[in-house]
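Hi Q.,

Before the meeting this afternoon, I wanted you to have the hypoxanthine prediction in hand. No need to reply - just skim if you have a minute. The sequence and ligand are here:
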Amino acid sequence: MTDAAPDRIPALVHALPKAELHLHIEGTLEPEMAFAMARRNGVKLRFESISDLRAAYNFDDLQSFLDLYYETASVLRTERDFHDLAAAYLDRMAAENVRHVEIFFDPQTHTSRGIAYDTVLDGLCAALDEAEADHGLTSRLILCFLRDRSAEEAMAVLEAALPRLDRIAGVGLDSAESGNPPSKFEAVFARARAEGLTTVAHAGEEGPPAYIREALDLLHVTRIDHGVRCEGDPDLVARLRIEQMPLTVCPLSNIRLRVFDSLADHNIKRLLDAGLLVTVNSDDPAYFGGYLSTNFIETQRALALDEADIVTLAKNGFTASLLPAEKKAAHLAAVDAAYREFQESHGRPSTA
Ligand code: HPA
Ligand code: ZN
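Predicted structure with the ligand bound:
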């Protein structure tokens, strides 16, 4: 593919219907929007300007990112703020030809500042409903517990969410991974499953392969978020392949948070070639240098993914989604059709 037209891969990535399964809505807060909300809510940020804030988006590890991420989230106060945040992301995804998104939100980040859970949920749901009506973009919400806070607090969050569980597809686990193993939340996740919720968990981003095993065996997750550190345990890699356990991989995030030194060192291609069900996602795109399509394009470039890899990754996003089987099948057929059409209009790849 070395002599492919320079815009061929971006055009292909755009042409393929896509799903995003690992996206923190608070991580879509662009500096411009943060300043606009700070102004209208009378919140003072410690940064003088949008460019000062953007310049601070330079992280040593997960914790250094989380510190800024929680600080900036303080501008989100009203239902309108949560609506506008999600609407901007969803409009962008519709423009990128993304057809389905599964969105994390962190109630504790907001309720601990005195913002009501219903304010957060109402704002987000209004935007999700509009995106489906306006763009046919479907979505699910996944409520995440902050793993560096107590299991008791997580249980209280779950209980507070019970009256409106119709809008929640599942629960997840995020924030500082090291020292906060999945086992800490075994009882909370058991309760969530008993309430009919799907469970997912961040594991193996900075934490060890043992955390991935705990997420599988103790939390009974249907997906692992990140999971890239599985390679430290070859038996676990084999298990992930055999079970076709989805990994929601976030390439640009992993570089910005220094999980890998560079995209060229990332293991997503190796995991894909080993037969694991890996997907591409953006995590916190306002902070990590790109939304979903940019993650696809930059990963392709750095790892010389071929077009079949890109099509597989796009299809894996739907396969690993929480959509019902008939919706998955329709999306998978749409990806194949889009690739056939792309080849008709752009020709076959030069090395195929
Ligand atoms: N890891 C853990 N917690 C998070 C992340 C992440 O990448 N993004 C937002 N919260
Ligand atoms: Zn994440």
